[in-house]
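Why does this matter for the project? Reviewers at the last site visit asked to see concrete outputs rather than summary tables. In response, this paragraph embeds two records directly. Each consists of the residue sequence and, immediately after it, the corresponding structure tokens. Nothing has been edited or filtered.
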Amino acid sequence: MAGFSNYFRFILKRERAVGLTWFVCMVAFEAGLASVFSGMFSDAESMRAMAFTMNTPAMVALMGPVYGLESLTPAIIMAQECLVWFFIAAAVMNIFFVVRHTRADEELGRHEMLRALPVGRLTGAASTLTGAFALNAAITLASALGLIALNADGATAAGAFAYALSIGAVGFLFAALTLLFAQLFSTPRGVSGAAFAVMGVFYVLRMSGDMNGNALSAVSPMGLGLKVQPFWLNGFAPVVILLTEAAVVAAAALAVCANRDLGGGIIPARKGKARASRFLRGEFGLAWRLSRGTIFAWSAGIFALGATYGAAAGTIDQFAAGNEMFSKMLASAGAASVADSYTAMVFAIGALLCSVPVINIAGKIRAEEKRGRLEQILAKSVPRERMFLSYIALAFVTSLATLALMAIGFYIAAGGMKPGALLTAAFEYLPALWLMLGLTVLLAGAVPKLAGLIWAVFAYAFAVFYFGKLLRLPELAAKLSPFGYIPQLPSQEFALVPLLVPALLAVAVCAAGVAGFGRRDVG
């Protein structure tokens, strides 16, 4: 028992920066949105208009079904707008948390040193699971109390706890799933890749179930979490189901952990060939070998996302034809047609997601540096700039491939649309992706201690896109995002100059990053 408590305290000490940052951001963002939504609507009619907009097929696919139309409050609208995104944030937080304290520690040899102390075989896994539960519980309690303290319009105590508990339960289930994957796979990349792939599958299942009104939504933890319907029904049964599922998965993970070898996984890493090919002996080949899992997983996910949204495109015109109010709202927004507005929204969301693998690949050299592997390579006759440029080139190719796959998936599922127009609408976001690539290179190359700030840029871009109009942010706020200058085709007109600005800026910051990497000390 002493070994468990010491191990648990060690995890808490390691999380005093990262875990505390997640805690503060999650609680503060939930409280901030509650205060904003509370003062957003002047009367019941404005709330009904917002709910009507959210009840379109595109919005249901994005955020989930609308509920509580008979007694709308700002708190209900906030839950419908934001809950699914907090599910995703909680899932990401828990995936990184568990990988950091399990498989990553095993790969770096830390877990072997800890196991040399008087600790049991399951101490590390159980302590990690307890740490994840404590982090989720702390965020849940602080969020619920914060919502109650703000006394937002419609935010009852039961609704606040239902809202916060649904987020915490979904997050803890992903912690348990990631712990199970940490026993199955032998590398941190394999564990995180499997966890994020499952998260993507769950999101697509939720999307399909909510749009078609079938049971697929309940199969997904995100869809099940939405069935809590905070501030209206406040159903706690889905929370109990989610926690029960998490307990079952966690028990399975601990059972597997008790019978596997330290450092290995149930699914062993595939052994490579005895001799590397000529391609793999070069810098670009090494970058490809280390990044191909990320490229394949994200390419498949982006293609599936495009196809899923494309399948819903056929119902948009039919929906608008029977809803005069929605057609008027769309016309006032300046869109030529419902289909154009829907396509522009899908491609903007897809482009934001396409920047994630670009950032991962461009920043992978920093990960190799932190693990001490880059020094072994640069000790040979390998120019460090050429090594860095290999990752940059691979990220550049990935930006082209993912955007193209999104457009192709949308075209195949939607039908009746011109492929050239869809590819144009997708490739228009290339300058924004290149700017994200350039910023990653600048941070990883010149100021490596601040490399993680690129995710703050991504979070800002997403928040401005998703909440900008809702929060009535000034136009300058959008322009500060790498995606703020991009005209949204096909609902807006094409313009070349707004594309040149981020493209030229991307070249400049990328060059500065490579130059900084060439001058600074490695490691």
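We now turn to the second protein, recorded in exactly the same manner.
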Amino acid sequence: MTATEVPPKTPPGPTPAKRTFAFLRNTWRGLTSMRTALVLLFLLALAALPGALLPQRKLNAPKVAEYIAAHGWWGTLLDKLEFYDVYSSIWFSAIYLLLMISLIGCLTPRSFEYVKAMRAKPVLTPRNLARMPHYRLGRSEADVAAEIAGVHKQLSGWRRVEREEADGVRTISAERGFLRETGNLVFHFSMLGLIVFFALGKLYGYEGQVIVQANGDGFCNAGIYNYDSFNAGLRVDGTDLDPFCVKVNDFTARYTESGQPDYYHSNIEYQSGPDLETGTWRPYGLEVNSPLRTAGDRVYLLGHGYSPKFTVTFPDGSQRTQNTQWRTVDPTTMLAEGATKFDQPGITDEVQRRTRQLAVTGLFAPTAFLHGNVLTSSAPEAKDPAVAVDVLRGDLGLDAGRGQSVFEVDQTLIDDGRLRKVARENLKAGQEIKLDDGTKVRFDGVGEWVSLQVSHDPTQGFVLGFAIAMFLGLGASLLVKRRRLWVRVKPGTPAEPGTVIEVAGLARTDQAGYGEEFQRVSERLISGQKG
């Protein structure tokens, strides 16, 4: 390098701000591409699988605890990764949110392009139509104006524009199949609407389960404490539920020969709206696939079970009768277990009262069958009801200030000796046990209970509408073909009077069938036949 030479200058690199902007722009472009939206949709479906395969804490917390205990460190790891709260987990919500952003970012520019394409005129007629994939040449005796008028009539369902070229030549450019892109946009916007309203349904919806005795008993949708379990949306606090009441009069079940349930039916009465003020009850036949719809809620019949009826006659002659639901442990034979609890009346001393409480626990068989002295059931119908019970006496913990299961007693009270077994017996309807202090426990028979679920989803109509729109849009995008057609009409020469008609076509998609359609359309255009 000589002294007079100047070294070349190195162009300055991009500034940190430009690099950051380029990174954000590329990230946004990648996130809002249709490929990314499809990947996120697949990931969302994949992320929902654990919610269907694993027990969920909101639906069955005891089952989750049992699963974790049974699977050790693996169950604990899944709990830390929120696999038992899938639909409220951070990772599921992140995929959900990214999918919404991706769809919005993808559909917004496509919508503007679609509007521009709809407003634009069909493209100019190519100079050499013979080079198009579909081409046909013909002649007509009519003049150019008459022929052009006939072409307009034949292409009445096409978007078209007429242009004039040199030497009296006139052309028509026509397009058809814009409904394909419309269907595509409808499909994707409907998918976005489905996702949005499904999320809103989870925010403002709720589900509650309740067990009701099928003997005229009922419940009112007045608060969450009327339910045995209640799953509220994130924006539901249980203080503003849609008011209505339901009364269950009876229950009927039919079973197959193998003991499988075939038909459930319950005659209920309900009141909502003005009926609550007038006291009017309206009848309804509730079935598994025929929910009651009232006050914006749906009442489903989930199942049923049995409620053994016991009467306790205390030494002073006072009686107490209870008809408490017992939990089904074998759905095939409806064998049930449970606990019916009694507090002896007339005792004012709290210490003495807590030593005289009774619990009748054990098994109930609707159709009794004995294996030696072990009671079981041979059929789900209540043909020969019987119970195998233990009678416990002592402190049931009813005043402990904490809730306890209606189906069982607190085992810790038995372990502590505060609750002792004083009798064990198998009983059929009408039979009784006499305790050491003269108390008599009689098995009177059995009633039935039904399990109801109340579901509230204010967005279900929107979800259904968007789901239908998705299928319609998908059908349009798959079945409609985008195609173009050009017609050029040239005036003839003195040697060959009349007109020369050129027809060319181009399919905008790779779908088969346009060749046959082009042949039909071009034949009509050249011959002038109506079609």
